[in-house]
């Protein structure tokens, strides 16, 4: 009797069905399923045996390894899980990208706001400086307008006092610079020192020392050519020269420069007579 490898017909459809299902699950979920391979063989093909050789009939059956009955459901869950993981990764990446862009935009907006604030501060500072300069110019113009016409007004000063006052009027409009003694700029004591030098009197350099020279008098007794002081004797912080008609000339400050002013605008506290 011939020996033939036989695979029972009721096993074949089951093995093929499970193989196809596993392959489809592997493609859908990105998972390579491992499938058992069936094989069976007889020791010789049909009709290929030696004459007179006896052999007992044999049937060999190769079976597919047993697969779980719920394989399709498991494969689907695996595919769904992988799909959700991929989706979550994409969502996380999109979120991180959006967060990075938002942070970059916020940084740019902050830098822009800082630049605009700095420009606004600069503009405000420039406007204030221009306003201060304009007010100083207006004060200087007003002082000049209110000052008496010294060219036409008769001078009550005589002798050395007239020379001092004439020199002072020639300096009107020049700049105030701390420590300056002329000829293009003065501070208050530098101006009075230069004026009295015209008549041969050497005053000390600073207002504190100048306030201790000459004969002390009251402000109401002042005559043209007398020194006027702000502050006590020996501690005066400003000095000017009385020119008559309740007016004095001084190197006032950096915004005014050398000007002629009224006693009532900035009343002095003491006076001395050196001529």
Automatic annotation (TrEMBL):
Comp. bias intervals (Basic and acidic residues): 96-138
Domain NlpC/P60: residue ranges: 158-275
Pfam families attached to this UniProt entry: NLPC_P60
Region (Disordered): 1-20, 40-79, 96-157
Keywords per UniProt: Hydrolase, Membrane, Protease, Thiol protease, Transmembrane, Transmembrane helix
UniProt record, GO biological process: proteolysis
Record field: compositional bias (Basic residues): 8-20
GO molecular function: cysteine-type peptidase activity
Residue spans of biased composition, Low complexity class: 40-49, 143-157
InterPro entries noted in UniProt: NLP_P60_dom, Papain-like_cys_pep_sf, Peptidase_C40
Parts of the chain that traverse the membrane: 21-42
PANTHER family per UniProt: MUREIN DD-ENDOPEPTIDASE MEPH-RELATED
Sequence similarity: Belongs to the peptidase C40 family.
Protein name (Swiss-Prot/TrEMBL): NlpC/P60 family protein
Organism expressing this protein natively: Streptomyces armeniacus
Native organism taxonomy: Bacteria, Bacillati, Actinomycetota, Actinomycetes, Kitasatosporales
């Amino acid at each position: 009797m011939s020996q033939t490898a036989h695979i029972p017909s009721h096993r074949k459809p089951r093995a093929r069905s499970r193989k196809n299902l596993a392959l489809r699950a592997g493609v859908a979920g990105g998972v390579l399923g491992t499938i058992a391979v069936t094989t069976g063989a007889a020791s010789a093909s049909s009709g290929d045996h030696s004459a007179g050789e006896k052999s007992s009939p044999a049937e060999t059956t190769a079976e597919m390894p047993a697969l779980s009955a719920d394989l399709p459901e498991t494969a689907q869950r695996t595919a769904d899980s992988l799909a959700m993981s991929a989706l979550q990764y994409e969502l996380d990446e999109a979120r991180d990208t959006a967060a990075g862009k938002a942070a970059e935009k916020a940084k740019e907006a902050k830098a822009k706001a800082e630049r605009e604030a700095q420009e606004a501060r600069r503009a405000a500072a420039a406007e204030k400086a221009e306003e201060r300069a304009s007010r100083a110019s207006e004060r200087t113009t007003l002082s000049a307008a209110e000052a008496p016409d010294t060219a036409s007004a008769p001078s009550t000063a005589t002798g050395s006092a007239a020379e001092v006052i004439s020199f002072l009027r020639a300096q009107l409009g020049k700049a105030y610079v701390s420590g300056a003694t002329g000829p293009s700029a003065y501070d208050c004591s530098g101006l009075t020192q230069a004026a009295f030098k015209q008549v041969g009197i050497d005053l000390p350099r600073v207002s504190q020392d100048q306030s201790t020279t000459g004969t002390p008098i009251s402000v109401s007794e002042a005559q043209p050519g007398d020194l006027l002081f702000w502050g006590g004797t020996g501690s005066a912080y400003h000095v000017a020269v009385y020119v008559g008609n309740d007016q004095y000339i001084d190197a006032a400050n950096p915004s005014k420069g050398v000007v002629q002013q009224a006693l009532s605008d900035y009343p002095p506290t003491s006076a001395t007579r050196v001529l």
